[in-house]
Amino acid sequence: MIGIVKTSILVTALALTASCRDTDISQVAPATAVVSTQNTGDTRIAKNVFGYISLGSNQRSEAFGGYARGCQAGGVQLLETGITWQAMRLSRNRNWAQPETVDYVQDLSRFAATLDGWDGIYVGDMSQPRGGPMLTGHASHQTGLDADIWMLPPINLNLTRQEREDLSSISMRRDRGAFTNSSWTEEHMQLLRAAASDPRTARIFVFPGAKVAMCNWETGDRAWLNRIRPWYGHHYHFHVRLRCPDGDSGCENQAPPPVGDGCADAQIWVNDILNPKPIDPDATPRTPRSPLTMARLPRQCLRVAQNE
Questions:
Q1: Number of folded domains in the chain?
Q2: How many C-beta atoms lie closer than 10 Å to residue 10's C-beta?
Q3: What is the pTM of this model?
């Protein structure tokens, strides 16, 4: 674990950034239950606090709250480069997570390196140094228990920092996500099966056509398919979500997926893509979500943000 030292500059920076304009463009993640807090009256926009902190907190590693309403103490940084992985988009400083997540990513990368055409994995966004809401992008990834794995099979794990900014992953979808395209391979399904079969995994989000493809491909034990969940987007990467670590009493798991392999539900998603329901012109527009304030995060997150 990397030792973390913070200076008193952080406190000043938090106060200055609290008034920054809300520019959240995040895509809504599956809902989690509201976390009760004791930060009543702290109206600072939480992403303007956590989004500018550059280092993890000097605390015991622990996840607080839910995946889309929480933070992480004692976050550790995934090394930028390993034998079987590289962290991408380093300028975002989102290669931080709980120790269990870092171990998981490294384990998965070693499996990926055994697949034909894969030297390991490219790792996208994990979490910010102290988790919490991000300035842009995800609504989840707040507790150090989420990680995005690129669909692009790595053939070069010696990319420079600039190359990691310039290189893009590749899409696996066809017909708006109803089907996979010619870039989708059996190795992708083997990797996703390994990721979902790990007991630390709670869910993996991927576009609907990929889930249906895996349902049609698997001829043996189908238990792992339960953890593969169709969700919007997720065709350039798949999103791994881990369970709360044992002993983290302040961490909130998402409700378990419905029983079964989930294949019939994925087919419904595909059917809706191919034959979308007509838009109701009289439907009431959805009220935009207001950004999370510090008062709506778990009370522990205030201590995490203020830790030096």
A1: 1
A2: 17
A3: 0.87
